[in-house]
Specification:
Layout lengths: L2 H7 L1 H19 L4 H25 L3 E3 L4 E3 L1 H19 L2 H7 L5 H18 L3 H19 L6 H32 L4 H7 L6 H17 L9 H7 L2 H7 L2 H17 L4 H24 L4 H22 L2 H26 L18 H4 L1 H14 L7 H14 L3 H27 L12 H14 L7 H13 L3
Antiparallel strand pairs: 1-2
Length: 480
């Protein structure tokens, strides 16, 4: 394939890269033009997304740059979720960051660069491309975590994320070097062919190290130690971004490398995925119970949800992958909506609040906000008829169909533990004495974006099942 054809297949990444460079020049010229840069960055994401939709409609399935990167239904589905989450993260950030004195034009530049890296991650068909996309995303994320440079918590979050992220990258790179050494190639398809038969001990170590490095990126237990501290310390719009777009990208990358590169040796990777899934579900649920900070609670919630998503991967089937993609789409809406609610917890003096004491009796002082937050909590708990129930149902169905009934049973039992801390939020808002700390919201963007997310995870979301099921099935089919 010639260069022009390859560039056409990666046009979304080209658009985002070029836009980021242009906005970088704008930030150097006018660093205070944060709102304008955010609007232009959202426009770039919409433009990139339009090309992705065009590829999806055309059923594009081709490799670019001599097989280093692919353009298929699976990657395009993930890119839509990534661009959507990135755009929402840009839209909700300006007023919050301005209040902190941290809104600068570099923020949308970093979001675009991270989105570019994530687009490369989900389309990677080679270990080299995988690492380039992963590091492009990670380097932008390290800066975003410490973006509020005069806030000690943000600086601490950025430092912790950088140190532990560098460790995870080293583990991943070591595993990749082992796979290359024993398979003789960095291509996923070539590694898959090399695993079709007798597997050496060195190859097993390579698989373990690669899965460990990727488990860090999706904050799956026992590689979750960075998540609560980074989520609490980073500015809330950044935390909303971390909890949505990078989760989709890293999960999609994990799916692709497991199915395309390790698929022939399910007995090696399936045990690892099952253990990580169960640990994430249980540690996420138990760890959240004692939390008093709402951002830390949502951090453990993300760990818990990753465990449920990995149940679909453990099935190792087309149905399991499709279930994972459905869950990811619903998870993005639930998570973004939850953090949008947190951003509206602003006291009368203008300071932002994020503890259980602050939302006591919220239903009596801010009934609409309390109702929306309750919708997100019930949906995250997987309580019907809210849409979050459907996400859990499809992955459990895939596990049962793949003869993993014990895994599904343990997952269902553990979800009951997780429901405790979600219901605790609702109990504090509706049954405790009003603290009357939270002032009425004056941010229309947060109000309507939160309302849209709440509608998406309400029973109205079931209307999207036919479209979501068709797209996820098409995406999963591209890998098998």
């Amino acid at each position: 394939m010639d260069l022009n054809a390859s560039l056409f297949l990666v046009r979304p990444e080209v658009i985002l890269s070029f836009s980021a460079l242009v906005l970088l020049l704008l930030s150097a010229w006018r660093s205070e033009a944060g709102r304008l840069a955010s609007i232009l960055a959202v426009a770039a994401l919409v433009g990139a997304g339009a090309y992705v939709v065009q590829f999806m409609a055309a059923g594009t399935d081709a490799l670019a740059f001599d097989g280093l990167i692919g353009n298929d239904a699976f990657g395009n589905f993930a890119k839509i979720l990534i661009y959507f989450a990135a755009a929402i993260s840009l839209m909700i950030a300006p007023r919050f960051l301005e209040k902190m004195g941290a809104m600068r034009a570099e923020y949308p530049v970093l979001i675009l660069l991270a989105a570019t890296g994530m687009g490369i991650m989900v389309s990677a068909t080679d270990l080299v491309t995988l690492y380039i996309g992963l590091e492009l995303n990670s380097l932008a994320a390290y800066v975003l975590a410490s973006f509020a440079r005069y806030d000690g918590r943000s600086a601490e979050a950025g430092l912790k994320y950088f140190v532990l992220g560098a460790l995870a990258s080293g583990i991943l790179l070591f595993g990749m070097s082992l796979l290359y050494g024993f398979a003789g190639s960095t291509s996923f398809s070539a590694i898959g062919s090399a695993l079709n038969g007798d597997i050496s001990l060195g190859m097993i170590f390579g698989i373990v190290f690669v899965l460990s490095g990727l488990a860090f990126k999706i904050s799956a237990a026992p590689f979750h130690m960075w998540t609560p501290d980074v989520y609490e310390g980073a500015p809330t719009p950044v935390t909303a971004f971390f909890a949505s777009a990078p989760k989709v990208a890293a999960s999609a990358l994990l799916i692709r490398i497991v199915i395309e590169a390790f698929g022939n040796e399910a007995m090696v990777w399936q045990q690892i995925v099952i253990v990580v899934a169960l640990m994430s579900i249980i540690i996420g649920a138990v760890g959240a119970i004692g939390q008093q900070n709402l951002k830390r609670l949502l951090a453990y919630s993300s760990i818990n949800n990753i465990g449920f998503i990995l149940i679909g991967l453990a099935a190792g089937t087309e149905q399991g992958v499709a279930g994972m993609l459905v869950y990811l789409a619903i998870y993005v809406a639930m998570t973004l909506g939850s953090f949008i609610v947190l951003m509206q917890l602003k006291a009368h003096d203008g300071s932002y609040r994020e503890t259980f004491d602050d939302i006591a009796g919220l239903s009596k002082t801010r009934p609409a906000l309390a109702a929306v937050f309750a919708i997100f909590m019930f949906s995250l708990a997987g309580i019907p008829p809210l849409f979050g129930f459907w996400g859990k149902l499809v992955v459990f169905q895939a596990a049962v169909a793949a003869n993993l009934l014990p895994l599904a049973v343990v997952g269902i039992a553990a979800s009951v533990i997780g429901a405790f801390y979600y219901l605790k939020v609702v109990k504090v808002m509706y049954f405790d004495e009003p603290a009357d700390v939270i002032a009425p919201s004056d941010d229309a963007v947060l109000s309507w974006t939160g309302g849209i997310m709440a509608a998406a995870v309400s029973p109205l979301g079931y209307l999207a099942i036919p479209i979501l099921a068709a797209l996820s099935a098409q995406a999963a089919r591209a890998l098998f």
